[in-house]
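Progress against Task 2.4 (sequence-to-structure conversion) is shown through the following example record, which the project officer requested during the mid-term review.
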Amino acid sequence: MKKKKSKRVIPGFGLSMGVTISILSIVVLIPLASLVAYTAQMNFGQIIETITRPRVLASFEVSFLTAFIASVINAVMGVILAWVLVRYDFPMKRLLDGMIELPFALPTAVAGISLTALTADTGLIGGFFAKFGIKIAYTRVGITIALIFIGIPFVVRAVQPVLEKLDSSYEEAAGVLGASRARIFRKIILPEILPAAFTGFGLAFGRCIGEYGSVVFIAGNMPYETEITPLIIMSELQEYDYASATAIALVMLIASFALLFFVNLIQARNTKIIKGG
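Structure tokens generated for the chain above:
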């Protein structure tokens, strides 16, 4: 008896693979190749000299430090938000669930202008803190707040499906056996959601380090203090120094690839553990 071949929704492997490779080349490979090609115009010494300039190093510190802090906060708050959306029923729940994705739909420039207006010394939030001598806008605190805003959906949407599929019978059994709520969360729930939380953290971090539109307004762009790396790249492009701009961008690209590799490694490890039983 010959086994019947399963019917595919989209027939033709060659055609499907050709379309896939074409789109991947246009959207991803060609832009990345052009980045490497422009960087190749400089020798290794020139590249190191460009990316180690004091102003560039200071921008790396601002971008990576604020992105890391924002992503850590998002990892914690994202888990809490996902927990509330999955485990509780309350009025306007669907509205809150939809608002989580607002940073995806809202233009980044609009988000930046709105956050700047709110956190400036004359704004609703900034004015309150200004009474105590705390400045938010045009500081690294303001940058971190903007990055939290654009990064929180990644963590929520990564953790939420895991919580929805989590079998509550294990928690009930642990409760019957006398385990406290803290112990149940630490021993049963946390190991299940931790890989998803790390994935959300990595995606948020990758988005935050390259964010420009929502940060450029609230940052103030003071050299060595609040100047972000994407702004340095834009400045080099405006001066038609494409080689220097691509050399700096290459550092961001390598960091993003490292993050994606880390995220995929966690996902692969988690999938292997699940399949192993």
